[in-house]
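pinned: reference chain
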Amino acid sequence: QVHLVESGGGLVQAGGSLRLSCEASETVSGAKAMAWFRQAPGKQREMVAIIRWDGTTNYPRSVKGRFTISRDNAKNTMYLRMINLKPEDTAVYYCNGQSFNDDQLAPWGQGTQVTVSA
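pinned: its structure tokens
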């Protein structure tokens, strides 16, 4: 079974930037899609970036233009570059994926905490 480990979170001031990493225990280059999610206290988990098998990406309006998802198949790693961070971006960030059978790729990991101070 694939396992995913998120890293790169931290405390940053508003307007700052971070790059998150999601390392897979084995290749996920054959996944239908990989995505980043976040969950703030008291809120539901939401998707903030997706990259599909063909390289196309999508972002919700709340992060579009500030977040960039990318992947390095050779390193079994996916990234989320975040710039111009806002306090409302504070959350635990998770990664996961979807197979072509529409199954969730891996169990949820521990996530990585991102805290943006005003």
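why pinned: Strands lie at 4-7, 10-13, 18-24, 33-39, 46-52, 57-58, 67-72, 77-82, 91-98, 112-117. The longest strand covers residues 91-98.
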